Structure formats: structure tokens, C-alpha cells
Amino acid sequence: LALQIKGKITEIAKILRVNEARLYEYFVYKSSFIPLKILLSLCKLLKLDEYQLERNIIAYRQHYSNSIIKEPKLPLKITPLTTFLTSHIYFDGSLPKDGSGTFYNNKSKGIMKDFIDSLMETFGKVHYIKKLDHRGVLKCGMPRIIGEILKYLYHIRSFACKESEVSDFILSLPYEHKLAFVIGALVDEGSV
User: What are the 10-residue block averages of pLDDT along the chain, 192 residues in total?
Assistant: First the structure.
């Protein structure tokens, strides 16, 4: 992409109504992330295949966030493992309305390790912070975009405790997904 626009930066900047210096920053100096809106506009303008572009994405982050997902697994797919992760966020996680990250809590080191492994397998190398909270419970903080993506993929209105409900979309998924969702719920909320 950089090679295709290198000699046309001034012209492209005018068409996209973007500061020319920004395009140099993105494509020549490669000193910052390229906003998705600009990438999609360039694909359309230069008649490039968006899926080919997607295969060349090496990292992404949410706007105004320093938490990066490296070596992303794209395209993101709705799999039983993704459904399992979504269940964890529903039952022992959160996506606070204050705009902070996505969080998952669990007392078990083994369950937390499985959650983080599943997170990496689904999304790529996700920047996360794992620590004990004030109650001695393990808390995993990850980029907010993780929760936002899951919310979008599964048509979820909210992950907030009092507002959340299982979406019709989740209920319409094949058996393997429903099983993954219930297993995630039992891991977080069940006891024997």
C-alpha cells in the first residue's frame, strides 16, 4: 500500500481530506497506526481488496489507547472458543461504561491461565495486565476493543451485571456454541 501511494501523497491527501503530513507519518515514516477509516478509504480509492489488506495487518489498537494487539488473528471468526470467551466476560467480566478496558476476574490461577490462552488463540498477542484485586481475586485487564468486538459479534446490548441478557444471536448459534457458552458460565458461576 505504501508503495502504491508514495508518489501520490499530495493528491490522495486532498481527495481524502487528510493532512499530507499524516500520510507521510503513516506510510513513509511508519511512525504511527493508520486509522481504519483511512485504510478503508484508500482501499476504495485505489480499488484494493480489503481482505488482502487485512492479511497484512501486523497490529491494531483502539483509537486513543496504547494497548496493542500484535500478530492479530484475522479475520476474527465466531467459533466455540470465541463464544466461550464471551461467556467469561458475561459472567465474571466487565466492559465498564467509563471507557476503560475489558476485564475478567477469577480466583483460580488455572482458569485464569486458560482464559488468557484462549484470548491469545482467538485474537493474537493481546497486551494484558494480570494482578490481584483488593479482595485477593485475580483480575485480567485487556484492551477495551476486545469487549467491544465481542459485544458487536454476538449482538450484546451490555455486559453490565444488571443490564446483561443472553442475546438472541447467541441462542440461535449451533449446539457447540451453546455448549461453550454454558461451560463458560459453569466455570465462572458453578460449584460442585
Answer: 78 89 87 87 87 85 82 93 95 88 93 95 95 92 94 91 84 96 90 59
Which DSSP string corresponds to the chain? -HHHHGGGHHHHHHHHT--HHHHIIIIIS--SPPPHHHHHHHHHHHT--HHHHHHT--EEE-TT---EEES--SS----HHHHHHHHHHHHHEE--TTS--EEEEES-HHHHHHHHHHHHHHHSEE--EEEE-TTS-EEEEE-HHHHHHHHHHTT-S--STTT----HHHHHS-HHHHHHHHHHHHHHH---
Q: How many Cβ atoms are within 10 Å of 168's Cβ, its own excluded?
A: 8
Assigned C-alpha cell, 13: 491527501
